[in-house]
Amino acid sequence: MFAQTFFLLLVLPAFSIASPTAGIRTRQAITALSTAQIEAYKPYTYYASAGYCSPSTTINWSCGANCQANPSFIPVASGGDGDSVQFWFVGYDPTLNSVIVSHQGTDSSEILPLITDAEFELKSISSTLFPGVSSSVEVHDGFGKDQAQTATAILAAVEQALSAHSTTAITTTGHSLGAALSLLDAFYLSLQLPSVTVNFIGYGLPRVGNQAFANLIDSKLPNLSHVNNKEDVVPILPGEFLGFVHPSGEMHIMDNNAWVACPGQDNDSDECSTGDVPTIFEGDSSDHDGPYDGVEMGC
Ligand SMILES: *[C@@H]1O[C@H](CO)[C@@H](O)[C@H](O)[C@H]1NC(C)=O
Ligand SMILES: *[C@@H]1O[C@H](CO)[C@@H](O)[C@H](O)[C@H]1NC(C)=O
Ligand SMILES: *[C@@H]1O[C@H](CO)[C@@H](O)[C@H](O)[C@H]1NC(C)=O
């Protein structure tokens, strides 16, 4: 059960050590998002939340307010068992004119009671699923293993959705563990379907891979967003001292509910997660599920 591995992310100490080898850095300022920019995230926030729905309710698209918030959604396929395989779904949103891919996450009430000695490490990304990617590109082995379980089924569903709805856009989304899986899916789909525009919008994303991974994600998915809520601890884990680095694209929700765009990877300004939550002891796991502009994650 992956949740056990995921728990270890929480119990490890997280020291805020700025990586001297950090690759892509920008000189942009931290900027506040406008109300309209924040509102543009809303449909994706609901799709991330809907990742928690079981396949049957997703197919029928009726498992509570967060699923029904995108009423024009056209489901294409879904799967997972909510246990060894996180639920997932693929469909099409006519308003966004994008194929949507979402994975179920884990809420903090599921994560916190679990104490195990499960281990994880950075491992080279799968050369089967990610052909041509250097073995220096490493990801959390639990995330990599979980993403591999559903990758080809999701690719087939995405190809079906693309041809049925004549769009060339895919957005992957998810919360928590679901965000990690959907970030890997976005990278996977961008390699498998090079003529399609792929983007990722995730919430409460833990660190997924190493510096080489973060740099490659920055170049392949230059417009991605990972939204972090206040003092959530998950985004600062696993710790940078273990070699993990976030890609760019953090949006941080401040204590006053303003959203700011944080330039660079793991921006250590106290307006951004890495700087605001230097250790897990300064974090608040109850911020993990939201609210993200009013939306609490879950089904
Ligand atoms: C969808 O809902 C209908 C009516 O409630 C039900 O008969 C059907 O089995 C459901 N489909 C799935 C895939 O669960
Ligand atoms: C980049 O992402 C933002 C937020 O998801 C979106 O509003 C915008 O249209 C995207 N821009 C491009 C060029 O894809
Ligand atoms: C963090 O943001 C500031 C802008 O306030 C920028 O100058 C700095 O380079 C960024 N840091 C990183 C690590 O990207």
From TrEMBL:
Q: Which reaction does it catalyse?
A: a monoacylglycerol + H2O = glycerol + a fatty acid + H(+); a diacylglycerol + H2O = a monoacylglycerol + a fatty acid + H(+)
Pfam families in alphabetical order? Lipase_3 (PF01764)
Q: Report the record's Gene Ontology biological process terms.
A: lipid metabolic process
Quote the PANTHER family the UniProt record gives. ALPHA/BETA-HYDROLASES SUPERFAMILY PROTEIN, FUNGAL LIPASE-LIKE DOMAIN-CONTAINING PROTEIN
Name assigned to this protein: Lipase class 3 family protein
What the record says about family reads:
Belongs to the AB hydrolase superfamily. Lipase family. Class 3 subfamily.
The chain positions of domain Fungal lipase-type read: 101-240
Q: Which residues form the signal peptide?
A: 1-18
Query: Which keywords belong to this entry?
Result: Disulfide bond, Signal
